[in-house]
Amino acid sequence: MYPQSSQKKYWTFKSEQELSELRLKQNNNFIARHGARMTEEQKSAFFLSADEERLLLKQYELQLKEFCKRFEPPMSKCVVGTAFNYFKRFYLNNSSMDYHPKEILATCVYLSCKVEEFNVSIGQFVANIKGDRSKAMDIILSNELLLMQELNYYLTIHNPFRPIEGFLIDIKTRCNMNNPDRLRPGIEDFIDKTFLTDAILMYAPSQIALAAVLHAASKEQENLDSYVTESLFGAAKEKLPVLIETVKRVRSMVRTIELPQKEKVRALEKKLEKCRNQENNPDSQIYKQRMKKMYEDEDEADLMSTSYHIADGNSDVSQLNSTNPGNMSVEYHSAI
Fold first, then answer.
1. Which residue has the higher pLDDT, 305 or 258?
2. Helix and strand tally (H, E) in the chain?
3. What DSSP state is assigned to residue 2?
C-alpha cells in the first residue's frame, strides 16, 4: 500500500522547490569537485548549470518514452512508469555530468523490466538498442548495481495505473456516464505527460490517477464533480480543498510542459561531452584502464580464494608428513 511504502516515506517530496534544491546541490557538488582550480567565469563556460542539466534530462526523458514505445516485445505501462521513477530518482542524487543520461536511461529500463517481471534477457533487451550492442550490454550490466545503490534499494514503485482501473470501475457502478471506457485514450495521454513532469515525485498515484480521469472526462464534455464530492468524499468533505488543489496542480504541470529546443539540446550535448566525468565515460582511456585494473584485481582475488586443503584423519596441515602420502586426502575448494 502506498501510504506505508518506501515511495511515500523516502521518495515523495513536498514541492518543486525542494526538488530544484536537490538538483542544484548535485550540480554544485560536481563543479566543486572538478572545477576547484577554475574561476567562476571558467566554471560557467565549461560546466552545465543546474538549469541546463534539467533541460538535457528532459530530452532524455523524451528518449526514454520513445525507447519504451518502440520496444519489442511490447512492454507493459508499469515497466515504463517504473523506469521513469528510477531515472528521476537517480538524478536527484547525481549530476548528469557524472553519469551520462543515455547510459543510465537504458539501465533504468532494464532494471524496471526485472522488477515488474517483464521477462526479457539482456540479449533481447539490447537488440532494441542501435549501435554497438555488446558495448551497450557491458554498460547496462556495469551500471545496474550503481543504480540500485543510488535508489537505496527501494525498487518497488506504485504507479497510477491500478487506481485508474479502480476509478473506472467505480464510475461504471455509481455514475450514469455512458461508456466510461471512452475516457481511456485521454487518461493514457495524460499519464504519459505526467512522466515528463515532477508530479510522480510529489503526489500519490491515486491523486495523479484522479487528475487523469477528471482531465479525460472534461475532454469528453463529462462532468464528474458530483462523483468526486458526493461519491468519493461525501463522508470526508474536509479533505476536498486539498484534493482539489492537488488535482489543479497536477493538471497545470501537464499543461505547462515545455519541450526542449533541438538546437539548444545539441549545444548542451557537446558541452556535456567536454565536461563529463571521464572516469565514468566508457570511451575514455581513464575508464578503460580503471575497468582493466578492476578485472585484473578480480582475477587475482579469484586466484587467492582458490585453496588447496591437505589433511589426514587427525592431523593439522602443519603436522602432515609429506613422506607418508598413504594417510592423506586432498580436497580442492574453488570459490565461484
1. 258
2. 15, 2
3. G
Q: Do 296 and 118 contact (CB within 8 A), yes or no?
A: no
CB-side neighbour CA atoms (13 Å) of 301: 7
Rounded-to-integer distance, Cα 175 and Cα 190, Å: 22
In the chain, % helix, strand, coil (3-state, to 5) comes to 70, 5, 30
Give burial (CB, 10 Å; 0-12/13-18/19+) of 329. Answer: exposed
**What is the model's pTM?**
0.86
Helix axes of 184-194 and 77-93: crossing angle, nearest 10 degrees: 20
Half-sphere exposure of 308 (CA within 13 A, CB side): 5
Please state, in angstroms and as integers, the Cα–Cα distance from residue 326 to each residue in 294, 317, 320, 329, following that order.
43, 15, 11, 8
What is the arithmetic mean of pLDDT over 160-165? 97
> What stretch of H or E contains 119?
none
pLDDT at residue 306 is higher than 60:
no
The DSSP output letter for 252 is: H
At residue 114's C-alpha, the angle toward residues 76 and 139, to 5°, is 110
Q: What are 222-281's pLDDT values in tens digits?
A: 999 888 988 888 777 788 899 999 999 999 999 999 999 999 999 999 999 999 999 998
Instruction: Return the HEC string of 27-66.
Output: HHHHHHHHCCCCCHHHHHHHCCCHHHHHHHHHHHHHHHHH
Answer whether 312's CB lies under 8 Å from 328's CB. Answer: yes
Are residues 79 and 68 in contact, defined by beta-carbon separation less than 8 angstroms? yes
C-alpha torsion angle, residues 96, 101, 104, 110 (rounded to 10)? 160
| Nearest by Cα to 243 from 233, 252, 234 | 233
Q: Cβ(53)–Cβ(27) under 8 Å?
A: yes
- The pLDDT confidence band at residue 329, using thresholds 50, 70 and 90, is very low
Residue-wise pLDDT for 13-59, tens only, equals: 999 999 999 999 999 999 999 999 999 999 999 999 999 999 999 99
